[in-house]
Write a structure and sequence with these properties.
homotetramer; Alpha-Beta Plaits; binds 2'-deoxyguanosine-5'-triphosphate; binds triphosphate; binds magnesium ion
Chain lengths: 254, 254, 254, 254
Amino acid sequence: SKYEYVKKFELDDRLLPGVWLVCRIDGRGFHKFTSEHAFRKPNDLRALELMNKCASRVLEEFDDVVVAYGQSDEFSFVLSKEAALFKRRSAKISTAIVSLFASSYVFYWKEYFHEEVLRYPPAFDARIVCYPNIEVLRDYLSWRQVDCHINNLYNTCFWTLVESGKSPKEAEERLCGTFSDDKNELLFSDFGINYNDIPAIFRRGSILRWDLVDKMVKRASGKEVQRVIPAVVTVHDDWIKDAFWIENPRLLEG
Amino acid sequence: SKYEYVKKFELDDRLLPGVWLVCRIDGRGFHKFTSEHAFRKPNDLRALELMNKCASRVLEEFDDVVVAYGQSDEFSFVLSKEAALFKRRSAKISTAIVSLFASSYVFYWKEYFHEEVLRYPPAFDARIVCYPNIEVLRDYLSWRQVDCHINNLYNTCFWTLVESGKSPKEAEERLCGTFSDDKNELLFSDFGINYNDIPAIFRRGSILRWDLVDKMVKRASGKEVQRVIPAVVTVHDDWIKDAFWIENPRLLEG
Amino acid sequence: SKYEYVKKFELDDRLLPGVWLVCRIDGRGFHKFTSEHAFRKPNDLRALELMNKCASRVLEEFDDVVVAYGQSDEFSFVLSKEAALFKRRSAKISTAIVSLFASSYVFYWKEYFHEEVLRYPPAFDARIVCYPNIEVLRDYLSWRQVDCHINNLYNTCFWTLVESGKSPKEAEERLCGTFSDDKNELLFSDFGINYNDIPAIFRRGSILRWDLVDKMVKRASGKEVQRVIPAVVTVHDDWIKDAFWIENPRLLEG
Amino acid sequence: SKYEYVKKFELDDRLLPGVWLVCRIDGRGFHKFTSEHAFRKPNDLRALELMNKCASRVLEEFDDVVVAYGQSDEFSFVLSKEAALFKRRSAKISTAIVSLFASSYVFYWKEYFHEEVLRYPPAFDARIVCYPNIEVLRDYLSWRQVDCHINNLYNTCFWTLVESGKSPKEAEERLCGTFSDDKNELLFSDFGINYNDIPAIFRRGSILRWDLVDKMVKRASGKEVQRVIPAVVTVHDDWIKDAFWIENPRLLEG
Ligand SMILES: Nc1nc2c(ncn2[C@H]2C[C@H](O)[C@@H](COP(=O)(O)OP(=O)(O)OP(=O)(O)O)O2)c(=O)[nH]1
Ligand SMILES: Nc1nc2c(ncn2[C@H]2C[C@H](O)[C@@H](COP(=O)(O)OP(=O)(O)OP(=O)(O)O)O2)c(=O)[nH]1
Ligand SMILES: Nc1nc2c(ncn2[C@H]2C[C@H](O)[C@@H](COP(=O)(O)OP(=O)(O)OP(=O)(O)O)O2)c(=O)[nH]1
Ligand SMILES: Nc1nc2c(ncn2[C@H]2C[C@H](O)[C@@H](COP(=O)(O)OP(=O)(O)OP(=O)(O)O)O2)c(=O)[nH]1
Ligand SMILES: O=P(O)(O)OP(=O)(O)OP(=O)(O)O
Ligand SMILES: O=P(O)(O)OP(=O)(O)OP(=O)(O)O
Ligand SMILES: O=P(O)(O)OP(=O)(O)OP(=O)(O)O
Ligand SMILES: O=P(O)(O)OP(=O)(O)OP(=O)(O)O
Ligand SMILES: [Mg+2]
Ligand SMILES: [Mg+2]
Ligand SMILES: [Mg+2]
Ligand SMILES: [Mg+2]
Ligand SMILES: [Mg+2]
Ligand SMILES: [Mg+2]
Ligand SMILES: [Mg+2]
Ligand SMILES: [Mg+2]
Ligand SMILES: [Mg+2]
Ligand SMILES: [Mg+2]
Ligand SMILES: [Mg+2]
Ligand SMILES: [Mg+2]
């Protein structure tokens, strides 16, 4: 039609080739969302597992995602530097990922939250950041895991203090100016909690990746046989340390 | 942390001030999605009303959206040229809108599709296009409505032919090379269908906008009173014609 | 060759259609350049006329430039909103303009500075800014002319004070906190200078545009005849006032 | 002033950190420029040395340029991946480089072209391309050198044929469909020219880089002493081969 010329106002937003693309999504206003849905404090396992479920849908849908990392209300999806998804069009990648994640969040809600009713549909923002080499990409991943660690250590202390009878204000004051060591010490001395015994998913977040797993598959004959098939697996390792990358040398290669 | 420098790789994506922003979303692979969910042909009213519901959530959430237009598996959200949402950061705007839309689609599915089970979470892409003046913005809106009209006229003929016993291939051949007039004529002569009698939502799509509506509100005293409040209203007007814009002179001003 | 794939790293930088493009160039380190070349203070007519000459080369070279405005060490080139120069590729436009301007500056130097030797080749930066409508574009042009006025009024006072025997420090202190009126008054009362008598090129900068001018042209027969031909003309009008735009209604249309 | 808001229309164009930036400039319409200035064919040493001179000015001005490569009417400037020049603002970098180059071209013209008068000021375009790793950056540099080689071999054959009495059309036909080997053979068999004896600057272009060179410096006492100082040096090496990079391991590090 004579109106089609308006399509020329769409500008090209292709991303630089040869760099890793990280699509990070983050829940919009989850301070309110978590409180309206009575998320457990400081961590709600149901919420984290729901997030991981949604993320695994993203991995299954988009081949170019080589690994994903989630914590709190956020998830980072790493696309291989050779990724050609949507010709590397930035908006296409971020919106396809974030919308699938958001719709999955509602779709799978009941599977994790059972009788807790979802009161309104959540939204997420997403952005794409280019990382040109493995070193800076690893630093990105470390950044998010450090963030998880710091928040979780703080929140664990905070809610432990509150549960022990302190007011939120008192708890905050007690923690003000403390370092990691102080917080570990506080948990151990005052409450007998060894921080390292807290589930790794809370302390380190979740790493989702493709791996080969054994699976029983039913043959046409009805006989069950074991097969090695690719599947998304979730681990809660410390990937700030070199050891992780020595053990997983090809993880970021796609 | 020492890793925070990675945030510097996030580049500024703010959009030009003073231009209208159109965020258009479109269902990913809805050819498959509509067929797996047995959408009615050529139009499924439940689907269109669900789309409109999701879009109205977007309008309610984001003040800067002055009007929205939907048809088929797509919706266009027009943000006022003064919009300051997310400081006009492109990725923030598109991802917040598209993720709310997608999660709403699942959230409200049952309200429109009842016993028809949602089999998997749908995704949408989104893009933002800048339009610098009213003329080209109106042409954009006309473009989408013409697209709706052309597709709907074709699909109406196609499925009418198929229902009458033709094979899809025969129907396609019958329509090949025909103009609008021919198709109107075909519907009328062969099937007694006056195309203009088909519901306007199918022929013209849906325009969603803010308006003042009368509403009965319950006072504290228990007494019901009538109040004029702003609400999202849906119309199916022809906005290709000047008449629409003469009647709605301030629609795009925000 | 097998190396050609590196061309894929060149990203598209086309600018939005339908908006005016302003390419503003500005001398790099002209504080030093003007002092090393003993530019007259506060204004050097030779320098301004050289700038205008270079700018007129740009207009002659690039049709899409509808008007240009210069003052101090800067020039703004306005490209029509329909401009298709280099398919609106941003880097192409800015670099072609700025490099022609810079090479012209050296090329024509002697014509304006005569025996004053050019000691080193000057550089300019350039940027392109999109302006979506006439109002904001006019405000841009007013912004540059107000800037010219403010700087020139200040510099005129400053150098008049210095010439009268004040030290630069004393002159600065005398002017500190004064408004436009105070400065006009100072010039008039203390030095008998009516600011409005200062050449318009200093007070208002230079507007370059295409116009039809009468020119004597020699025919093949040798006879001279008058012809109306398009040429770049330079004026020093006040275009902050509406009057200018009423008199030049089509100036920005290209 | 109240007009200053127009500055908000300037958008951020900072380039990705951590990647090499290549600014390639290329003469505009040098087909015409070289012919109007009677450039020697197939190569004009004066022109190439003038280009190199201009490029060395760029290196001297901008620390972040680690190496430059020139051939024909083009030059590529490689900025280190840590370059912070103009906060990596793309337009600032490209326009400052290209305008300095263009003004230098006129400034130094006479030094190389002597009595050959410069008839008009030349322009250059410039673009910036990001290269994320050494491999692709080396491929970029090889791409330009291969381009130099292919054009020069062709042009050498073409003009040798023309000088030998062939018409341009005949020369073109003679070369049509020939490979490198054929062209080397043609030069050698028919004209006794060993292509490798042709000056390296023509065959391989020019690499400009910083190096430490010995220089005689006059002391205050009047005595001349040898000093090692950094200076831009020009070589015509083959940097497609690994050998070059083994010998110059830190060249691209800045
Ligand atoms: N109780 C509880 N709260 C959580 C859990 N995971 C995340 N949250 C909450 C804590 C924070 O208030 C919020 C995430 O912080 P953000 O910085 O993303 O802020 P928020 O989403 O409110 O705002 P935003 O729209 O992202 O700027 O979600 C959880 O497992 N349990
Ligand atoms: N049966 C039925 N199909 C519909 C209805 N609305 C949309 N569709 C189908 C028709 C098209 O196959 C599809 C929309 O076309 P698109 O061009 O958006 O293609 P699709 O979403 O498959 O691919 P995409 O990911 O957008 O490139 O959705 C409806 O009301 N009823
Ligand atoms: N004496 C004299 N100086 C002038 C004349 N026109 C411009 N200038 C000087 C005054 C300023 O120091 C300088 C222009 O100011 P800018 O803000 O452009 O600064 P500059 O070019 O030094 O730095 P930049 O590289 O643009 O950030 O040029 C003139 O006609 N006479
Ligand atoms: N005779 C002669 N010509 C040369 C020499 N170096 C370059 N040229 C000419 C050959 C080509 O016609 C031209 C460079 O080719 P380009 O592809 O850059 O084309 P041109 O600059 O004409 O157009 P452009 O504005 O870059 O698209 O310059 C030389 O040393 N001698
Ligand atoms: O959202 P914050 O405050 O955690 O930090 P951010 O995500 O970097 O900020 P923004 O969402 O505004 O990009
Ligand atoms: O998706 P299409 O084919 O209707 O057309 P488009 O949306 O303009 O194409 P794309 O989704 O690739 O931008
Ligand atoms: O150069 P200035 O300081 O007059 O102001 P600007 O040109 O807006 O700054 P920049 O050259 O850094 O864009
Ligand atoms: O100028 P060309 O044709 O040698 O090739 P290019 O430089 O890649 O093309 P453009 O100057 O249009 O970017
Ligand atoms: Mg955020
Ligand atoms: Mg959040
Ligand atoms: Mg968060
Ligand atoms: Mg599409
Ligand atoms: Mg679709
Ligand atoms: Mg569609
Ligand atoms: Mg500046
Ligand atoms: Mg300056
Ligand atoms: Mg200036
Ligand atoms: Mg080119
Ligand atoms: Mg050229
Ligand atoms: Mg060239």
